[in-house]
């Protein structure tokens, strides 16, 4: 078994596939089976190269020094050989200067003669101009024409072209520069062609084309099924299927208008020139997009609008009475938005396409998102939908369910279970908006395109499925004692503490690894320049933020009691979602960090649940 020559992290010179050009690369990993090195170029491109295509930097520097040192010696040798030792130095210098002047005069005569010929060739009379006033040419024109013809007979076209090239008025340095630019352009075009071919998404997720096609229909059906089950008196899984309402009752133009009003109100708040502007992570072309961080301000303005409506006796429980119609309106809008996003992505440049949504298959790219950051001017559609209309809509729906519970059951105060659900989920949303900048480093922003998956998830799944516990409590009130409420609150606080402290630890380390406050953290260096934390929360499990998420999801469902499993659907879904995301993260990190990630996995063996998984 051949031993590897280059170590991980070593900076070497790697040959670009299909060319003879070598570029500076960094070795990230080595495959013992295929004997291929995974290297990373300066622009972030990662390729697998054979050992024969990799050379050390010292060999390049040694060759360069040899060539530069040998040239002067050869020139000095040739000069020494051409000297005549029998001639005196003074006379030799005089004869040399005379011969140089003679050569210069001769060269000048040749150049002038050839330039005269060049002028005659370039400005020879055409057939239409040889006759003046429909008559014969005069003697001068006739002599010039015969001279040109005779010269053309003496010199073929190829020789004339050589003369033109040899005595071009442009300097030779300029010609060489043009040749170098042309060769660089050809190499650049070749690289772009290779990158375009290699940028296609090869590893298809969600079951590929068949799986994504199924999910386009399954996800809306799952939302409507959950909402219909919550409306039943006995929301048991044995009562399947639930009674379906008339189709005409699922659509109402007024409800759709209210949804559009909500969406564009949030868009208006997003465009307000308040809050700081930050840069996102570098894109594949090195460019960084700018984002305005004003989500928390938008939440405050939204709260002011809702408070004003309640002050003027607006019936907010209208959301509960038309909950299914609102879900249908949101689903229809997300589908129209997804179609628009896919159509516009067809004209997007190659570097603006999503790494995970560029498979070339219509259904797959439509579902996962073909374009990474679709924007209308400075309005980022994906970033806007990620936190604004759906996440804030979740809080408004919870509030509407609380008011509906009080009205339906003639209560002067909401139930303790409803207060806990609203409080826990309000804390989660406010935390997300307060730490809005952290979302710029998530896979939703950096990797996933904006297609049906995120559009439906942000506008339908988040507000209408995440509010399932509050919707359930309206029709199925559950009484809990204060000690139980206190225990559930403690559980939620534990989950939130793990979630927030883990994310803050990661974000602070990414922003400034040299911060003295983080000196206690140990990490494994990687070829990308980033470090993998092996102490703190990230040395406890690989995804401590997911662990905090699951604990909080359980605390949100416990106020609903144990009569039915339906309120715990969110916990089951959340576990499945996070396990899927964890698998995606594992695959992505293994490709990105190579052997460093394998060492990290050996150091931190548990993924989400300590001592279990």
What this model shows, in words?
It is built from 21 helices and 11 strands. The protein is α+β, with helices and mostly antiparallel strands and 613 residues long. It folds into 3 domains: 10-57, SH3 type barrels (Roll); 198-479, no CATH class; 481-612, no CATH class. A 5-stranded antiparallel β-sheet has the order 4-3-2-1-5. Strands 6-7 form a two-stranded antiparallel ribbon. A hairpin with a 6-residue loop joins strand 1 (11-15) and strand 2 (22-31). Helix 6 (208-231) runs parallel beside helix 17 (468-475). Mean pLDDT is 78; it is low at 64-99, 108-157, 163-170 and 190-198. This is Delta(14)-sterol reductase LBR.
Summarize the structure.
This protein is an alpha+beta fold and 613 residues long. The protein contains 21 helices and 11 strands.
Within the largest sheet, what's the order of strands? 4-3-2-1-5
Distance between the termini: 35 Å
Q: What is the overall pLDDT average?
A: 78
Main sheet attributes: strand count, strand direction, barrel closure: 5 strands, antiparallel
Number of helices: 21
Helix content: 55-70%
